[in-house]
Amino acid sequence: MAPVEIVLPSQLWSMIYKSNWSHTLRKFVFSFFLVFVTFFVKAQDTAKDLLLDDAIKIAKEQNMQIGLAEQDEKIAQAQYKQTESIWLPQVNFSYSGFVSNQPLYAFGYKMQQRVLKADDFNPAVLNYPGATTNVMTQLSLQQPIYNGDLNYMRKAAAKQTEVYSYQTQRTQEAIEM
Q1: Which residues of 3-26 are buried (b: 16+ CB within 10 A; e: fewer)?
Q2: DSSP code of 133?
Q3: Cα 86 to Cα 115: distance, rounded to the nearest angstrom
Q4: Tens digit of pLDDT for each residue in 102-151?
Q5: Residues forming beta bridges with residue 99, ordered by sequence position
Q6: DSSP of 54-115, one letter per residue?
Q7: Under 8 Å between Cβ of 167 and 70
Q8: C-alpha span between 79 and 157 (Å, rounded)
Q9: Contact criterion met (CB below 8 Å) for 96 and 136
Q10: Which end of the chain has a smaller Cβ tally under 10 Å, C or N?
Q11: CB of 143 closer than 8 Å to CB of 89
Q12: Is this model's pTM higher than 0.90 or not?
């Protein structure tokens, strides 16, 4: 029994090009390849019918301009929401501390704190007071009653929200046309 010889694809091509029948054999291999490709390879899925309403719906969902217009509208709504703060009170807290050995500042701090004694008027203490600290803490609450500027700003923000809403609507209508 004769041994079976295994032919690799690279060897097959070299055998085709070296044989006397190479032209006929090349045509046969090429034809076989074309038939194989047309039966087993699909470039696209099967075609689907696309109605006008479906096309418009897909265009609206995937259009970047509509997405940007909707984002602008959301930003305008958020800015309008921020204008609600015109009626809220403001709470402020501040803390400061100073240490000084300068005679004028030291005497002034003691006067602000209302802790002056008779000894503080002694010239030796007045000229060389030593380290004096002054600590101030302040808590304040401010409630606006009426602020005309902020009311106009709120009205402008409401109009801006309306404008961006119309812009989104017009962008969608332009896609439909």
Answers
A1: eeeeeeeeeeeeeeeeeeeeeeee
A2: E
A3: 41
A4: 888 888 888 888 888 888 788 887 777 888 888 889 999 998 888 888 88
A5: 133
A6: HHHHHHHHH-HHHHHHHHHHHHHHHHHHHGGGGGS-EEEEEEEEEEE--HHHHHHHHHHHT-
A7: no
A8: 7
A9: yes
A10: N
A11: yes
A12: no
Contacts of 163 (CB under 8 A, 6+ apart): 76
**Type and span of the H or E element at 173:** helix 148-176
Nearest-angstrom CA–CA distance, 162 and 155: 11
Comparison of pLDDT for 76 and 34, the residue scoring more: 76
Q: Whole-angstrom Cα distance, residue 145 to residue 140? A: 16
Task: Name the residue type at position 113.
Answer: Q
- Residue 61, token pair as written in the block: 């969902």
Q: Among candidates 73, 59, 74, which has minimal Cα distance to 174?
A: 59
Check residue 110 and give left, alpha or beta (phi > 0: left; psi -120 to 50: alpha): alpha
Write the DSSP assignment of 148-163 as a string of letters.
Answer: HHHHHHHHHHHHHHHH
DSSP 172: H
Distance between CA atoms of residues 67 and 75, nearest Å: 12
